[in-house]
Structure formats: structure tokens, C-alpha cells
Design brief:
The protein has 100 residues and is mainly alpha-helical. Helix content is 81%, strand content 0%.
Length: 100
């Protein structure tokens, strides 16, 4: 059986290089959050485009061919359905816990 030194092992792992990398990751996360807050509309549009392109690529792999316009309609319909389903589930969850 391996014996683990819980006091000294974590300190040995936190070398200056590792701490510098962790600090860099933390700084980049902060920059990313600021960018997301500042450019919400642009990122939402890019997400929609990515979903449509991804769906189109998957369909082509499976041999299904359709127009970009039709794919856009389908992706939006699925998104609305998923949102409605999520709202239904969350309201049912709230009601279930309200009566308890």
C-alpha cells in the first residue's frame, strides 16, 4: 500500500512554475468574462452560426442534404423546444418542492 504524505506533498507540487501558470489561467478567465459581458450579442450570433454549421456538417456526414435556410429554421425550432422543456421541468421542480 502506498503511503501519502498529506502535509508535504501538496507543497512540493506548488512550484513557482505551477503557481505562475495558475495565476495566468486566473487572469485569462477574468479577461474572458469581461469580453463575454461586453460582446454578448456578437457571441450569441456566433453560437447560432456555429450550431447551424455543426448541424449541417453532421447531416452531410450522414448523407442528409438540405439548405442553410432550412437548417437555421430547424436549429431555432429545436432551441425554442429545449427552452420550453427546460422551463417546464424547472417549474415542475419548484412546484414539487413548494408543496413539501
Amino acid at each position: 500500500m502506498k503511503i501519502y504524505d498529506y502535509k508535504n506533498a501538496p507543497q512540493a507540487l506548488l512550484t513557482p512554475d505551477i503557481v505562475a501558470m495558475l495565476t495566468s489561467i486566473h487572469e485569462h478567465k477574468g479577461k474572458q468574462e469581461l469580453y463575454i459581458e461586453a460582446h454578448t450579442d456578437a457571441l450569441a450570433m456566433l453560437m447560432e452560426i456555429a450550431k447551424i454549421q455543426s448541424t449541417g456538417a453532421s447531416n452531410r456526414i450522414e448523407g442528409i442534404h438540405t439548405t442553410d435556410k432550412r437548417l437555421e429554421e430547424l436549429v431555432k425550432d429545436i432551441g425554442l423546444w429545449a427552452l420550453a422543456r427546460l422551463r417546464t421541468i424547472s417549474s415542475a421542480y419548484r412546484c414539487m418542492h413548494c408543496s413539501a
